[in-house]
Amino acid sequence: MTHRSEQRSSVLRRGIQRVIDAGLSDPRIKGSITVTRVSVDTELTFAKVYVAISPESSESVTMHGIKAAAKHIRHRLSEVVEFRRLPVLDFRLDVSLRKEQEVLRAIATVMAELEPDEDEDEGGNGNGTERDDAGS
Predict the structure, then answer these.
(1) How far apart are CA 125 and CA 133, in angstroms?
(2) Could you give the CA distance from residue 34 to residue 7 in angstroms, rounded to a whole number?
(3) How far is CA 39 from the centre of its chain?
């Protein structure tokens, strides 16, 4: 990604977040919506807007509402950012945060399972094997 498209993506991400935070009148849009990243194509005509929605139970309905409001969001965005032409906005659900949380939960579970085993090993020599001093 070029420096120009990175700058444009950053400005668009902040602007779209501001428009969403100001509120949208669609009753399907519920919960907390966070614009996680924006990816702009090389011609700067299309932008993939990745959003995270919480709670997960309202993701599907909220995504339908956001996609239906894309033209309205783009129009309001033109009042917030000063671009000659705004790209067409394509909203997508960002599941990377959810996957990251699942991985962290799995690591925490494994760590919790390993902790009791470490307590049992404290009576040994620290490496988990018992050693008979008579044999050495």
Answers:
(1) 11
(2) 19
(3) 14
Give pLDDT tens digits for 56-65: 888 889 999 9
Separation between Cα atoms, residue 59 and residue 100, nearest integer Å: 17
Q: Domain total for the chain?
A: 1
Q: What is the largest CA-CA distance in the chain?
A: 85
* Structure-block tokens of residue 25: 């009148």
Written as one letter, the residue type at 73 is: I
Looking up residue 24, the CATH number of its domain turns out to be 3.30.300.20
**Could you tell me the pTM of the whole model?**
0.71
Q: How many CB atoms lie within 10 A of CB 20?
A: 21
Q: Which domain holds residue 53?
A: 3-94
